Amino acid sequence: MTLLVVVLGAVLCSFTVSAEIVPQADFNLQGMAGKWYLVGFATNAQWFVSRRASMKVGTAMMTPTADGDLDMSYASLNSDGTCWRLNNLAKRTDTPGRFTYTSERWGNVNDMSMVDVKYDEYALTHTIKTKDSAPTVVNKLYGRGVSLSPDVLEKFRQFSLETGVLPENIAFLPANAECPAA
Q1: How many C-alpha atoms does 115 have within 13 Å on its Cβ side?
Q2: Quick check: 140 and 148 in contact, CB under 8 A?
Q3: Which of 72, 74, 77, 144 is the most exposed place for a label (fewest CB within 10 A)?
Q4: What pTM did the predictor assign?
Q5: CA 104 to the chain's CA centroid
Q6: Residue 161: HSE in the Cβ half-sphere, 13 Å Cα cutoff
Q7: What is the pLDDT of residue 126?
Q8: In terms of DSSP bridges, do strands 83-92 and 70-77 run parallel, antiparallel, or are they unpaired?
Q9: What is the mean pLDDT of each run of 10 residues along the chain (182 residues)?
Q10: Cα–Cα distances in angstroms (integers) from residue 159 to residues 69, 85, 124, in the given order
Q11: Mapping DSSP to helix (H, G, I), strand (E, B) and coil, where does residue 125 land?
């Protein structure tokens, strides 16, 4: 009987962790257009442990395309004054608010969902990155400004915990100057 309880518990836990995250029901691609600040980052990826301390707020430009895709360009000012930049074209799927893209820089496949968006305030995204068949969860919190309300920060923290991110791997990034336009 004890073994049965343990097995059932393990099965239920696996359902909880692997439950599919669904995008916001009334997702509006055009509402994502413009500048966002990356203010929250959460993941259990191994690389994050060594780089967390050096991460700071960066800017993201979200540009919807005529085909319904989302062009994302990100920039963050390094401590030496150089800029770290990254661009990806997230291709739409049949589900509004869900996109896929392959990172040219790292070669991982990304399945990204816009989980909770208040277009004039914040956007919470959930991405499952897969490389060599090893999935990693990455949650990001974007704001239209660099400061978000304590309620929004807590919502992000709770969501990250619910998606399996350890508490110590949830970061609210410190303010940073912006990169000059490229």
Answers
A1: 20
A2: no
A3: 144
A4: 0.87
A5: 17
A6: 8
A7: 98
A8: antiparallel
A9: 38 44 96 98 91 93 98 94 94 97 89 98 97 91 98 98 96 95 75
A10: 25, 27, 9
A11: strand
